[in-house]
């Protein structure tokens, strides 16, 4: 039995699997729905910055105007710092749309409204705000946040510090303008001689789908091999059809190869669906070469095949196979940087992540899809994936042959 | 007959400490239909699986078409076909596609395979259904395709593990007809397992009775029946409308009675020594029984089984074997239809 007959037989088994698959409406629907659900779900449970908007926030203005008479000129100027603060806050909020501002009499009212879920937070500008500042003391603004919603408090903190900074800048510019007679429009350069601008290396706004799409592609491919493969074999074992192939005079490898081909085809179709959905529905763009993306996906397939076969040979029954797969898959899903960058994990978890092939698949896909990297930037990941594949196959193939030979 | 197609030598299979097949030795001649008859769990399927190279023997040896089932398993596979307990077919594929798939696994060239497929489809009169998905078939139709699927490679030796299990009477007789036809037309050697006496009697040239993993009798159906009837054994079926347990116990106590089978509310079948018939009738009358009808029966394979296993397994001369009565009295003590065990 030469290699050509193994390939010929496996092609027929693959044909059989794909024909079966293409005629099962349920499985076809799941093929599309699964990645769609996955994308939509992660899109909602991991909100990006832009997803917070129109949070109801109340402002309690207790501050009052203060008039100051310059003893030298006798001119009287009226200051109302609290109002300036609100003006700045509104200006910033108009840009971002994060908050919907309302007014409130004070702390107790804000507290009650937060408890009722009517408010996400409140800002209290105390009665002595202006007078404190004029007297050279720091003005104290109180921010009340809904502790049950950490994301909103974070957002409010960010907005408020920006507002205070803007207000500080405004007063500084006024002072520079008055004291040194610098034209108001040129004052910025005096106070803030340098500024920082954030820019990604690729055009377009960063978006969470952009980050998560490559991960989901890697995960989909992993799932079709790690769950699809053992399932395909143990299912046929259970219903008895595997015996039909086992009594035929074919090499055992033809069976597993046929199944691998079919599952790979399924994984690639699903990856294509994920990419299409990501581009059409979620505005994801592929910066790098699409062929390179396909290449990485194929390499990922290769790195997972061995693991899939290994699980298959260890498991007698379909149920056991499913259980083992689930136990392995969940850590893989969450530790491989599919949903959040592994750099955010504690170091020991990062070490674990580096032992998982999915991490490398995800990283490589992300580099190419998001950063437009070329082959030279991903060769480490590619090598590691290839090595994973070789090692697992070297263990799995003899195991499988042994498991199949009763 | 001529050469042996199958030879087994103390073939055994253990699952842990449990011995499912216990040192069985038998020969199957070329062109013969050999029946494996035994109750549930007797070890029939386990034996078939070992012979088909699906399961490794724990002891002993066997050859199929002259090839050792362990050392030359890939040679063995070229000569055999298997109709397993579970159907080997894919529901989403059509009959023709199923046959094509398996034909391709045997490297049959395309044109020859197409001819072969048409030929075996017409054998079971399924040409019209050939291009419909198996999932839409009735159980009987599925089983016809399942049987010819094992014939796609023209095997010399065909294994049929309970080929009529779960089929209605009409499908059952159709399948039996096909089996006979295949055997006659191709001189295919067959091993067929069944727990139905009738089936073994109708189809097989020789029968091995297997119980608890051991072959307890092996002969032609005629010889086995002769063995059961003997000279001094008579089998009578009594129809007693007011039959009760006390009456059964009393009959049991009559000298010469070897076994009683209660077949229904009112019917019992009694095996006894030639001259105990009068005593049995007396006993029934003494217990107040009204005998409506008495039939003297020809011994069947069922009686053979009862005689062999009833004695040896249950180790008691006058033990009442209560049976699950289904169909005629020939549907032996090993239970009726056995329910549908087939998957898919
Ligand atoms: N894989 C297995 N592991 C453990 N025990 C098994 C296994 N296969 C079969 N057995 C046991 O071996 C015995 C014989 O089983 P087998 O399937 O050969 O019986 P059978 O004669 O085919 O009966 P049936 O009429 O139910 O098909 C049974 O007691 C069964 O429980
Ligand atoms: Mg069986």
Task: Explain how this protein is built.
The complex is a heterodimer of chains A (406) and B (344). Chain A has helices at 3-23, 25-45, 81-96, 107-115, 129-134, 150-180, 187-191, 208-226, 228-239, 242-246, 252-282, 290-314, 318-335, 347-353, 357-371, 375-404, and strands at 55-61, 66-69, 76-79, 99-103, 121-125, 142-145. Chain A is α/β, with parallel strands linked by helices. Chain A has 2 domains: 3-47 and 207-405, no CATH class; 55-191, 3-Layer(aba) Sandwich (D-Maltodextrin-Binding Protein, domain 2). In chain A, strand 2 and strand 3 form a beta hairpin. In chain A, helix 8 (208-226) runs antiparallel to helix 15 (357-371), helix 9 (228-239) packs across helix 11 and helix 12 runs parallel beside helix 16. The longest helix of chain A has 31 residues, at 150-180. Chain A is elongated and about 110 Å long. Chain B has 344 residues and is an alpha/beta fold. Chain B folds into 2 domains: 4-225, P-loop containing nucleotide triphosphate hydrolases (Rossmann fold), CATH 3.40.50.300; 241-291. Helices cover 34% and strands 27% of the residues of chain B. Chain B has helices spanning 44-51, 73-79, 95-105, 110-123, 139-149, 169-186, 197-203, 221-229, 245-253, 277-286, 301-312, and strands at 4-15, 18-29, 33-37, 59-64, 67-68, 80-83, 157-161, 189-194, 206-211, 214-219, 233-239, 257-262, 267-273, 293-297, 319-322. In chain B, the strands form 3 sheets. Chain B has a 6-stranded mixed beta sheet with strand order 6-7-8-3-9-10, with helices on both faces. Chain B has a 5-stranded mixed beta sheet with strand order 14-11-13-12-15, sandwiched between helices. A 4-stranded antiparallel beta sheet of chain B has the order 2-1-4-5, covered by helices on one side. In chain B, a hairpin with a 4-residue loop joins strand 12 (257-262) and strand 13 (267-273). The model of chain B is unreliable at 311-344 (pLDDT under 50). The A-B interface holds A 1, 5, 8-9, 12-13, 15-16, 19-20, 23-24, 238-241, 243-250, 405-406 and B 52-56, 74, 77-78, 80-82, 84-90, 92-93, 97, 101-102, 104-107, 133, 149, 153, 343-344. The complex binds adenosine-5'-triphosphate (ATP) and magnesium ion (MG). Magnesium ion (MG) is lined by residues 44-45, 85, 161 of chain B. Residues 44-45, 85, 161 of chain B line the site of magnesium ion.
């Amino acid at each position: 039995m030469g290699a050509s007959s193994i390939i010929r037989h496996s092609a027929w088994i693959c044909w059989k699997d794909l024909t079966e698959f293409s005629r099962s409406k349920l499985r076809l629907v799941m093929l599309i729905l699964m990645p769609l659900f996955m994308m939509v779900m992660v899109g909602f449970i991991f909100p990006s910055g832009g997803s917070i908007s129109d949070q109801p926030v109340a402002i309690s203005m207790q501050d009052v105007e203060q008039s100051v008479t310059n003893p030298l000129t006798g001119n009287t100027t009226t200051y109302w710092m609290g109002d300036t603060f609100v003006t700045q806050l509104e200006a910033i909020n108009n840009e971002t749309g994060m908050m919907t501002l309302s007014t409130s009499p004070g702390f107790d009212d804000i507290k009650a409204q937060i408890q009722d879920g009517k408010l996400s937070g409140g800002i209290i500008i105390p009665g002595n705000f202006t007078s404190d500042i004029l007297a050279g003391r720091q003005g104290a603004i109180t921010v009340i946040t809904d502790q049950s919603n950490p994301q909103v408090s974070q957002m409010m903190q960010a907005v408020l510090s920006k507002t205070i900074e803007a207000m500080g800048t405004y007063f500084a510019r006024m002072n520079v303008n008055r004291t040194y007679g610098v034209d108001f429009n040129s004052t910025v350069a005096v106070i803030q001689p340098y500024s920082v601008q954030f820019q990604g290396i690729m055009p377009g706004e960063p978006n969470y789908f952009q980050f998560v799409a490559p991960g989901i592609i890697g995960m989909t491919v992993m799932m079709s091999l790690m769950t699809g493969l053992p399932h395909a074999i143990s299912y046929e074992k259970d219903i008895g059809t595997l015996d039909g192939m086992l009594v035929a005079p074919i090499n055992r490898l033809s069976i597993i190869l046929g199944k691998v081909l079919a599952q790979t085809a399924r994984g690639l179709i699903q990856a294509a669906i994920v990419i299409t959905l990501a581009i059409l529905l979620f505005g994801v763009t592929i910066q790098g070469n699409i062929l390179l993306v396909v290449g990485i996906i194929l390499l990922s397939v290769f790195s997972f095949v061995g693991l899939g076969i290994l699980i298959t040979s260890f498991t007698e029954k379909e149920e056991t196979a499913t259980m083992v797969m689930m136990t392995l898959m969940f850590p893989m899903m969450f530790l491989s940087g599919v949903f959040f960058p592994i750099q955010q994990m504690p170091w020991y978890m990062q070490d674990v992540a580096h032992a998982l092939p999915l991490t490398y698949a995800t990283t490589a896909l992300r580099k190419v899809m998001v950063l437009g990297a070329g082959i030279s930037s991903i060769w480490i990941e590619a090598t590691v994936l290839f090595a994973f594949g070789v090692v697992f196959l070297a263990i799995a193939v003899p195991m499988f042959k042994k498991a199949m030979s009763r | 007959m001529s050469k042996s197609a199958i030879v087994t030598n103390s073939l055994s299979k253990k699952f842990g400490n449990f011995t499912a097949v216990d040192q069985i030795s038998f020969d199957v001649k070329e062109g013969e239909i050999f029946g494996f008859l035994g109750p549930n769990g007797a070890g029939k399927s386990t034996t078939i699986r070992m012979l088909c190279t699906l399961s490794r023997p724990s002891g002993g040896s066997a050859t199929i078409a002259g090839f050792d089932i362990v050392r030359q398993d890939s040679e063995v596979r070229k000569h055999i076909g298997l109709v397993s307990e579970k159907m080997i077919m894919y529901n989403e594929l059509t009959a023709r596609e199923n046959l094509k798939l398996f034909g391709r696994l045997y490297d049959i060239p395309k044109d020859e395979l197409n001819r072969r497929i048409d030929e075996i489809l017409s054998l079971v009169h399924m040409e019209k259904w050939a291009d419909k998905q198996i999932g839409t078939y009735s159980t009987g139709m599925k089983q016809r395709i399942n049987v010819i699927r094992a014939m796609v490679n023209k095997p010399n030796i065909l294994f049929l593990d309970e080929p009529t299990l779960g089929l209605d009477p009409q499908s059952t007789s159709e399948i039996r007809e096909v089996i006979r036809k295949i055997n006659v037309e191709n001189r295919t050697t067959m091993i067929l397992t069944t727990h139905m006496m009738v089936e073994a009697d109708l189809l097989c040239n020789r029968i091995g009775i297997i119980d608890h993993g051991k072959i307890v009798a092996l002969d032609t159906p005629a010889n086995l029946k002769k063995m059961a009837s003997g000279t001094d054994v008579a089998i009578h079926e009594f129809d007693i409308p007011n039959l009760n347990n006390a009456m059964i116990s009393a009959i049991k106590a009559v000298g010469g009675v070897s076994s009683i089978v209660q077949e229904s509310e009112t019917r019992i079948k009694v095996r006894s020594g030639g001259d105990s018939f009068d005593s049995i009738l007396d006993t029934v009358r003494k217990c107040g029984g009204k005998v409506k009808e008495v039939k003297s029966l020809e011994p069947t394979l069922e009686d053979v089984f009862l005689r062999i296993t009833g004695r040896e397994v249950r180790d008691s001369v006058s033990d009442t074997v209560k049976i699950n009565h289904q169909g005629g009295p020939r549907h032996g003590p090993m239970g009726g239809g056995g329910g549908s065990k087939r998957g898919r």
